[in-house]
Design a protein that fits this description.
α13 packs across α17 and α13 packs across α18. The chain is elongated. The strands form seven sheets. Strands 1, 2, 3, 4, 5, 10, 11 and 12 form an eight-stranded mixed β-sheet that branches. Strands 18-20-19-21-22-25-26 form a seven-stranded mixed β-sheet, sandwiched between helices. A three-stranded antiparallel β-sheet has the order 14-17-16. It has 27 helices and 26 strands. The chain starts with a helix and ends with a helix. The protein folds into three domains: 258 residues, no CATH class; 129 residues, no CATH class; 256 residues, Alpha/Beta hydrolase fold, catalytic domain (Rossmann fold, 3-Layer(aba) Sandwich). α23 links the parallel β21 and β22.
Length: 716
């Protein structure tokens, strides 16, 4: 191998990375053993041919060679492959070279057991591993297993013959041109399964494909497809998860008596001789192959495309309701999070409520766009018609990633049995069951999260009783309208209980979510972000949307700001009301923040961290509910939320009500009126009550506020 190969490859990869927006994440590198290793890797693109030797070399600091299709060894490209340690699949010395380099530790090897790029990701047939390709189907190759067994066979044989027959041991070394036996005996042979998962998989014309087609005449369609797919992935941004699995120790696979007799035999055994234990070795190779194929695909990093594609393919329905599909994928995502031994893309490790609300990460939009562009789904009104033929009709293998990407996504996770089980369970459930289960899941999770936070952050003498902070659902007489009612900053759901009870008496359903960081202790609030507050509200809305026909959102103080934020992001809301919505604060604590921040920075410079001030005293109107200490970090998040909400007000076109206390000592009435004016709603009202306090949703005179809210809801 050319000693400059890795330097050359590194420069190549660096040049590509400067153009690329690809993000590579390595997992399980600690599992790579110290020994001679064959890395078995799934093969989907040309990129892994160049990328993986470089990445593995950086980890192990040992050269990494690989097998490549003999058809690639032509011209300058073939010369390049030879320089970077690739060996043709038809090289007559291939097996001997591999075994020798593994015996001595000269190099690790990469082998793609699928034998070629599997562009359609179809590797399962009737429950067995079966690789699809342009010419048909074939089982995965056992070459990696066979070579690993042969390597360890000679390693074990050398160990024994050095004692029983030194001459024969010398003959083995001479076969491979090995001078010293020491490096051979100092190591063991392993197979390490590796999975590469790309997300998202998209194919479009791009800079690279346009350059190639404009500069080169008669480019084969196969090559154009590869450049379009892989160029799009590189240039548009793709997450590449590289996962190393548990190593397979080959010495443990040579334990049967027939193989052991050949290992110990004093009879000369040359490299090309057929062993008496040939059948047993073949059986072991098949077992190892099944083991590493299972391991490779169990390491698949599950992502949103996998879930949507699997659910879409499995559904028996011809007409697809988007909201129903979102709910089912949400349930699948929630269920898979509770499973062990599955690998999740980082987008799937957090709350999936966004699938039910504003799709702010565009996972739903992006998937549906691809499905429509490739004629798998056809928009019909507010639903889609599914073309089931796309999942059963033959297609051009080399155009699968262009013409049938949804099928490719679904194929990729066929071996992930736990996901298939979850999808089969969900896909056949009726729509009403799905809606009810989504609501129950969200409500149950909200209580679970509160219990955990309360236990984690409980402070004796500081934390209130659990009844103060627990979220609650109050059932009315009619499911026509449900109200999501959001409490204020440093408060808890109990703050809006009087208003909730009043509304329920009028017949509507009410859900009061707990905003993250509240109802526990100030230390909890100090560690939260306004985005987490948004997620709490989103979950509340999603739950109520699956319980009632229409949803009204409203809140008090900071809860009003969160309600407006939600109304700006989601179209499917009947109306929004905001009671004392903050746009600018007048409270002393907020004004103190800059001074406190400056003081804290000074203390950091002089290394007096103990003198930093993280909280300021709070003197609330309702001390049985509110925190008595206000975290500086919380005030910053409050101000960040207000900054984020203000430009969104012009996006609110639904009916709106703003209520303000004239003498509010916390929220400036001018700010709430500015909120009102900024709303784009044609149907909007602004009501000022003559109160000299902030907390007007409970206590004396609160009934006037409650009636105003109900009159607004009645009009909707």
């Amino acid at each position: 191998m050319n000693p400059y190969a890795y330097r050359t490859t590194g420069l190549f990869i660096k040049a590509i990375s400067e153009l690329s927006r690809a993000r590579i994440s390595l997992h399980g590198t600690e599992q790579i053993p110290d020994g001679s290793i064959i890395f078995v890797i799934n093969h989907f693109t040309r990129m892994e041919t160049f990328l993986m030797p470089y990445l593995i070399f950086n980890i192990t600091k040992t050269p990494v060679w690989s097998l490549a299709d003999y058809e690639l060894f032509k011209g300058a490209f073939g010369t390049y492959l030879e320089k970077v340690g690739a060996v043709s699949t038809k090289d007559p010395q291939r097996d001997r070279l591999i075994v020798k380099s593994l015996l001595t530790g000269e190099a690790h090897w990469i082998i793609f057991p699928e034998g070629r790029m599997v562009k359609n990701k179809k590797i399962i047939e009737k429950g067995r591993f079966m690789i699809s390709y342009a010419g048909g189907k074939h089982p995965p190759h056992t070459g990696a297993a066979t070579l690993a067994l042969r390597t360890q066979f000679y390693r074990e044989r050398l160990r024994r013959l050095l004692v029983t027959s030194p001459d024969e041991a010398r003959h083995i070394l001479d076969q491979f041109n090995i001078e010293s036996v020491d490096p051979v005996l100092d190591r063991n042979t392993y197979i390490v399964p590796v999975n590469l998962t790309f997300f998202p998989i998209r194919t479009h014309e791009n800079l690279l494909s346009n350059m190639v087609t404009s500069l080169v005449d008669d480019v084969p369609e196969r090559v154009v497809e590869e450049i379009m797919t892989e160029g799009t992935m590189l240039l548009s941004g793709v997450d590449l998860d590289v996962r190393f699995g548990e190593p397979i120790q080959i010495s443990e696979c040579l334990q049967c008596p027939q193989i052991d007799r050949d290992v110990s035999s004093l009879q000369r055994i040359d490299f090309d001789d057929t062993l008496t234990s040939h059948r047993q070795m073949r059986r072991e190779a098949l077992k190892i192959m099944d083991q590493y194929m299972t391991a490779i695909y169990s390491l698949t990093t599950l992502n949103h495309d996998h879930l949507f594609a699997s659910m879409l393919r499995a559904t028996p329905r011809k007409m697809i309701d988007e909201q129903d599909l979102r709910r089912r994928v949400y349930l699948a995502a929630t269920a898979i999070q509770g499973e062990s031994n599955v690998q999740l893309h980082n987008d799937l490790e957090s709350s999936q409520t966004h699938l039910l609300t504003d799709d702010r990460h565009h996972r739903v939009r992006d998937f549906l766009t691809v499905a429509v562009e490739t004629n798998i789904l056809y928009p019909e009104g507010d639903r889609y018609r599914k073309d089931s033929r796309k999942f059963s009709s033959p297609y051009d293998f080399h155009r699968a990633r262009i013409d049938n990407p949804i099928e490719v996504m679904a194929n990729a996770v066929e071996p992930v049995t736990v996901l298939q089980r979850i999808v089969r369970k969900i896909v056949w459930k009726p729509a009403f069951w799905i809606k009810r289960t989504v609501a129950e899941t969200l409500l149950s999770q909200a209580v679970t999260d509160f219990d955990l936070d309360y236990e984690t952050y409980f402070q004796k003498g500081v934390s209130k009783g659990k009844d103060v902070g627990v979220p609650y659902l109050l059932r009315g007489q009619s499911r026509e309208i449900g109200v999501v009612l959001i409490h204020g900053y440093m408060a808890a759901p109990l703050e809006v209980k009087e208003l909730a009870t009043y509304l329920v008496r009028q017949g509507v359903w009410v859900y009061a979510p707990r905003v993250k960081g509240h109802g526990t202790s100030p230390a909890d609030l100090a560690g939260t972000t306004y985005q987490q507050w948004q997620e709490s509200v989103d979950a509340g809305y999603a739950a109520m949307r699956n319980l009632c026909k229409r949803v009204v959102v409203g809140g008090f103080s900071n809860g009003a700001g969160l309600a407006l934020d939600l109304a700006a992001r989601i179209d499917d809301i009947a109306g929004v009301f905001a009671i004392c919505p903050p746009l600018r604060l007048q409270d002393f604590s907020s004004k103190l923040v800059p001074a406190v921040g400056a003081w804290n920075r000074l203390m950091e410079k002089v290394r007096l961290d103990d003198a930093k001030k993280e909280f300021v005293d709070n003197h609330p109107e309702n001390p049985h509910i509110n925190y008595l200490q206000n975290p500086i970090a919380g005030i910053r998040e409050l101000e960040r939320l207000m900054d984020a909400v203000e430009p969104k007000l012009a996006n609110i076109h639904l009916p709106a009500l703003v209520i303000q206390a004239q003498g509010d000592p916390v929220v400036n009435p001018k700010g709430s009126f500015r909120v009102f004016r900024a709303l784009a709603s044609e149907d909007k009202s602004y009501i000022v009550f003559n109160f000299d306090r902030h907390g007007i949703v409970l206590g004396d005179g609160a009934g006037r506020v409650h009636r105003a809210v109900w009159e607004f809801i009645q009009r909707l």
